[in-house]
Each structure stands twice: as C-alpha cells, then as structure tokens.
Specification:
This protein is an all-alpha fold. The chain is built from ten helices and two strands; from the N terminus they run H-H-H-H-H-E-E-H-H-H-H-H. It has a two-stranded antiparallel sheet with strand order 1-2. Strand 1 and strand 2 form a beta hairpin. The radius of gyration is 73 Å and the shape is rod-shaped.
Length: about 375
C-alpha cells in the first residue's frame, strides 16, 4: 500500500503533488479495511444497493404494470379492431344495401321523371286540344248564331215574321250567355239593340186578317150570283121589337097596355096572310137593274170558273199578307171586291157579309218598315274575322 503523503514536503513539485493525491485517496480508502472496520465506500455502497434493489423492484413493477397495461391495451385494441371489422363489414353491407337502394331509387326516379315528362306532354297536348276544341266550339256556336240570325232577317224582310225574329235573337243571346267570355258582350249588346227595335214595332194582327180571308174564301161557293135562275131575295128588314117595359120613379115596371087576346090573334093572322100574299106577288113580277148585262149571261161553267178566280184572288191576298207585300195584297182585294160587286147579288145578306169582311181586311195597315238585324250580324262577323 502507498503511504499517505505528509505535509513535511512542502517543497514538492506540483506534478508530484498531483500524482500523490490519488495514492493518498486509495490508501485512505483501503486503510480502514486493514484495520477491520467498514470503510466509507462500504458505508456508501449499502444505501446505493438498497436503492438499486428498490429501483430494480420499482422498475420490475413498472415493467410488469406496463406489460399488463400494454397487454390489456392490445386486447382492447384487438377487440376494438374486431368490433371495427364487424362494424366495417356491417357498414359495407349497409353501404351496398344503400347503394342498391339508391340505384333502385334512381331507376324509380328516372321512371317517375319519364312519366312526369310524358304527363306534362300529355297535359300540354290536352290543353292544346281543349283550346282548339273551345275555339272550334265558339266558332261553331257563332256560325250557328250567324245562320239563325241571317234566316230570321230574311224572314223578317220577306214575311214580316217579327215573333220569329225575336225568338231567334233571344236564343242567340241565351247561347252567348252560357259562355263567360267578355268578348261576347259586344255581340250581346248588338242583339239587345235589335230586340228593342223589334219590340218597338206596331203590332199587326196578321192571324186575324188571315182568318177573315179564310172565312170569305169558304163563303164564295155559297154566294148567290146575278146569273142564277132563282136569285136570292134581298135581306128582310129587321122587325121592330116589342116595346120593353120601363121603370117609373118608384122603381116599378111600366109598359104599354097589353092588347086583348082576340084582337091580337086577328091582327097576327092578318099580318101573316098579307105578308105571304105580297111575297107571292113579288115573285110573279120582279124588276132588277143590272149595270153589267154580261153578268146575266154567264153559263154555269163560266160561273164556276168565276168563283174559283175570286178564291184565287183571295188566296193571293193571303199570301201577300204573310209576305208583307202590301201592293199585291191591296190589288188582289180590290179585284175580289170588284168581282163580288159585278157578278154577285149584292142585295143578299151573305154577299153583304163577305163584302163587309173584305172591307175590314182592306182597312188593315201593312205599310210597316221592318228593321234589319244588321247590327247583330255585323257584330258576329267582325268577331269571327278578328278571331
């Protein structure tokens, strides 16, 4: 063992001092061991070993704990990975299902879009067809109204059929009122003006005049003529009626005094016998004045044709009445009246009745200016031209 350095060498060199210092340390460390007691190193090594053991135990415990945690973590990660795989598989299945459903939905949506497009095209076609039909319906209705109004106007001018023209205008207005188009207001206004014109016309009893003419036509065959062998007796004057009783101031009936029954019977018998005697005398000798001698020379066939000619004249007058031809109406009536006055016995009551009916017919006024339905027809034609 090296001896420890002493302080008796103060003059030693610095290098030697440096070399001697480790040796002294070694001797100091080794010195107590030779003397039988624990050295400082040993004393320092025991806590260190304990600390190392504790540290080793701690490290082992930490290593075991970390190993357990890592193992548990691995198991948990493995379980989670397994669950993730299952979930991924389920998600994949679900994704495939969703994809298949999406494809089916896309197919259905495509089919619906195709149907929608077809429905839209059909709807457009139906709307176009409805518009065409509505337009054609309006055109047909207006064409029908125009034809009806034209016919009514012709009948109004030719035959003066005012009721028929009013009915035609009312039907046209009713037909236009069913449509809610405001364009028809102009046409309806024109129709209303024509209806007011027709309603303002004076009424002519054409039916009554025609019935009187028919009555005269039916009597022609029974009227006596001047050329007959036994002309009819003139109409007997009406006998004066009996005096009617009158009332006095008291309200009682007062009349002429009643004749005696015997005197009254004698008077009636005398009047009857004298009247019969006078008629017989008149039949023996009869004087007549005829302005047209040729009327007495008619043969039976000529008389027949004369009656037929008068009836034809009256029928022509009836037709002229219906057609509002006043000139022909009056000329035929005058011809029929002249024939009655020239060839028929005007003293007979039947002839006088026929002449009275003809005078009533001739007094009828047919000179009425019939309006036209030009306003309504013009409105309908203008609308058709614009549409």
């Amino acid at each position: 063992m090296n001896e420890m350095p002493t302080h008796s060498e103060p003059n030693a060199t610095p290098a030697g001092a440096v070399k001697a210092a480790p040796q002294a340390a070694e001797q100091a460390a080794a010195g107590p061991s030779k003397q039988g007691g624990p050295t400082l190193v040993e004393q320092l090594q025991k806590p260190t070993s304990i600390a190392l053991i504790v540290l080793a135990v701690l490290l082992a415990a930490q290593s075991w704990s970390s190993s357990n945690k890592i193992h548990n973590l691995r198991e948990e990660v493995a379980k989670r990975l397994q669950k993730g795989d299952v979930s991924n598989a389920e998600t994949g299945v679900l994704a495939r299902t969703v994809q298949e459903g999406t494809k089916e939905l896309q197919i259905k949506v495509g089919a619906l879009e195709n149907r929608q497009s077809e429905t839209q095209s059909q709807q457009l076609a139906l709307e176009q067809l409805y518009n065409d039909l509505s337009k054609n319906r309006d055109e047909w209705a207006l064409t029908e109204i125009e034809q009806v109004l034209s016919t009514a106007s012709q009948q109004l001018q030719l035959a003066g059929n005012v009721p028929g023209a009013l009915i035609a205008l009312q039907n046209a207005d009713r037909s236009l009122s069913r449509s809610d188009k405001p364009q028809f207001i102009t046409i309806r206004r024109a129709i209303g003006r024509d209806m007011e014109k027709l309603k303002a016309l004076p009424s002519v009893d054409s039916t009554g005049v025609a019935l009187r003419l028919d009555a005269v036509i039916g009597q022609i065959d029974s009227l006596p003529m001047l050329s007959d062998e036994k002309p009819a007796l003139p109409a007997a004057p009406e006998k004066a009626g009996k005096a009617k009783p009158v009332k006095n101031a008291a309200g009682k009936l007062v009349g002429p005094p009643a004749p005696e029954p015997l005197l009254q019977s004698v008077r009636d018998g005398w009047n009857t016998w004298s009247g019969d005697m006078w008629n017989d005398v008149r039949q023996l000798i009869r004087l007549r004045r005829v302005d047209t001698p040729d009327a007495l020379m008619l043969s039976p066939s000529e008389a027949y044709f004369l009656r037929e000619n008068v009836k034809l004249r009256l029928l022509n007058a009836r037709m002229a009445l219906l057609s509002r031809n006043e000139t022909a109406f009056r000329s035929d009536l005058i011809a029929a009246q002249d024939a009655l006055a020239k060839y028929f016995d005007t003293r007979a009551k039947a002839t006088q009745t026929a002449q009275g009916l003809l005078r009533q017919v001739q007094a009828s006024n047919l000179a009425i200016d019939m309006p036209t339905l030009s306003d309504s027809l013009t409105a309908v034609r203008n609308y058709k031209a614009k549409s």
